[in-house]
Amino acid sequence: PGLLLLASFLLHTKAGRASPARLLCDTRLIHKYIGEAKDMEKKASQCQALPPLTCPMVLPLVDFSLKQWRAKTNETKRREILCELAVLVGAATGVQAEVTQECAGRQLSLLQRHANSFLLLLQTFGWEAAPQEPGCSPRSMEHAQLAGIFLTYRQLVQGKLRFFFHDLAKDACE
């Protein structure tokens, strides 16, 4: 899935005028990733009951106010999503060794690959030459259940990422 996203990006980029947003003109792609996030969450919930994590993972709170979201620049939105994705990937990496059940481990690995793909994609575009913020520290909460990471990832893809891609498509697509 990550290679598909990157390949789509490269195929939709015009020579001399790199526009990652060209990838976003086909809304079926984001809907595909939303569907995959829902599927991962569903499959993980069907795995055998998992014990609580011995060390709770820190996950970003990805809820948002649409009014406040629309007031932000695309660069601010991109940075916010990058930060939340980085925290998600870190949480997934941190609990990977603790998840010994094959079913849940497979879904967790898939989530990591997808989140890393979005991280790579969002790192390829930035519009403003603004100074980088020192680190990132999104609003967060500790979760002791593995299901929390799948829920958070789905909410991020279904919410901020979808709206971000929609905003980019408005500017980049005819």
UniProtKB/TrEMBL annotation:
SUPFAM superfamilies: 4-helical cytokines
Location(s), subcellular: Secreted
Highest taxon in the source lineage: Eukaryota
Gene3D superfamilies documented for this protein: 1.20.1250.10
Alphabetically ordered keywords of this record: Disulfide bond, Glycoprotein, Hormone, Secreted, Signal
Protein family (similarity comment): Belongs to the EPO/TPO family.
Primary gene name: Thpo
PROSITE patterns: EPO_TPO (PS00817)
Gene Ontology CC entries for this record: extracellular region
Name of the protein described by the UniProt record: TPO protein
Lineage: Eukaryota, Metazoa, Chordata, Craniata, Vertebrata
Signal peptide residues on this chain, from the entry's feature table: 1-18
Single biological process term from Gene Ontology: positive regulation of hematopoietic stem cell proliferation
GO molecular-function terms, A-Z: cytokine activity; hormone activity
